[in-house]
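fwd from M.: "can u put these together and see what the complex looks like"

so here's what she sent:
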Amino acid sequence: MMRRSVTAIVLALAAVCPALARGDGQQRTSSLASREPGRPGSFEISVGAELLTPQALGSTTATMTSNNQQGTSYNYFVVGGTRVAAPAFRGRIGYNITPMFTVEGGLVVSRGNVQGKVSADAENAPPLTVAERMTQYFVDVSALAHLRHLTFSNGAGVPFLEAGGGYLRQMHEGNLAMNTGQIYHFGGGVTYVLSKRPASKLTGIRVRADARVYIPRKGYSFGRSQQVFAAIGGSLLFAF
Amino acid sequence: MMFARSHTDRRRPVKRAAILVFCVIAAGTPFHSHAYQQYGVQVGNKIVRLKWNRMPVQYYIGNVGIPGVSASQVQTAVDAAFTTWHDVQTAALSAQFAGYTTAQPTQDDGLSTIGFLADPQEPDVLGSTDWLIDDTTGEIVESDIFFNSAPVVPWSVAANGESGHFDLQSIATHEIGHFWGLGHSALGETQQVTGGRRVIARAAVMFPIAYSPGNILDRTLQADDIAGISDLYPAGAFQSQTGSVTGQVTKDGKGVFGAHVVAFSPSAGTLIGNFTLDNNGAFTISGLAPGPVILRVEPVDDADLDSFFDDPSKVDVNFTIRYYGRFAIVPPSGSTPQIQIQVTPK
């Protein structure tokens, strides 16, 4: 029990300050180790894919004004909207401020169907689902905290937490009309070292798996301002 | 300059379907339903939209009141109705009260006269508008409005309406829509009752059948009215910030004339309608917020066909309601590609 805690403390120290753990008389090794992925001042580029979960766009009713003194609403028909699950491409550039913290700028591009379920027609027209294809762009900035005290597989796997926000642009079918807004996210994941090449410019390759919760503000909806959805994704991360 | 009256016999208005009917006299030979809430007039070989070209338009109030409603109260109600249209920020309109007149709103005298006129033979007609047109340009040069002062039509100018009485300002708002050149909208649901039709609900002041007495809802324009007047007299950001849907309604491979096409924007929550207006079944709906809209096609069955069309015999009402199977994407300051909607016979 005692021994395990001591090891954990040493690992944590090593993660925060790698130079302390190396000791004297290892100048060559130390020089290479200083080019480890995640070192302060280094850059990372990642490319990958996400799957966006379905997003409720709200429900709205086409109304007329009833023939009464109050002018109450008369339902002509109802439309409920959903953006169905959609794949997305993503690319990110990260800058490691410290071994613990990274800032990232990213782009997510997704194309998916928007469906509107038309029902409750005042004249009993049969229900119908109408659709269009919408392309979405998220341009965002994130802050990542690497949980180096929770590393596994001898330090190859590192969990992280992230949060950020950015610009949302949605182009409707044919790029004829668009909506814009903001989109915020939080989530987490792990990176896992596939290859370390401390002696080269490309210092390492990692795989990254993560999950995000997206919170759009404005953007396309049927009356609601926020429709939370999630994404899971994976990417290859190249460290320089 | 030649003038043409918009009708051949103003004492026999075409619109008389129900006891609550607004009336617009638009059945004269030179007229064609041109756009959803607008009229077209034949000038030479082309059809031009019926509208005023010179602002401000001056109008006179007939100096005849009726029991309970004085001429000055008519002026107050009519002024408020003109202001309602004038306040549409995406339309450039201007009208000016020029004074009281002894002229009746039936005379081709160069004065646009608004006032009461008894038409006891037409107790179902609340009001009527006609125009005098320069048939070399299609420009309106005079428009008269009368409110039926037959004893069977109870009127009110009470601020909050009056039970059992028709609100003069509401009816004036509808008639002034015609005054500017708008026709009827079909955005309404009615039910057949003894002697005519009763409104269940409406989404346009320009629907041809009025709300029940005591109701003042028609003092306020709806999206369909605003789109129509803005399309006719565009101003401000109307052209840059709205778009249109164009398409064709067919049945058995042939165009459908007179189908009512409604566009609903789920994000803006607006309903705006129009008709297919030629034998190819072509339609255009303007003044729509950019973005996806849902299109619904229905036969005109909630008011008399002659409320909307010169020649009702050409109108096809033998088809079932149909939604277009995709969202139509309205671009800003542009139009959708041609949309094809096929309907099936009942």
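replying to her w this: DSSP finds three helices and ten strands in chain A.
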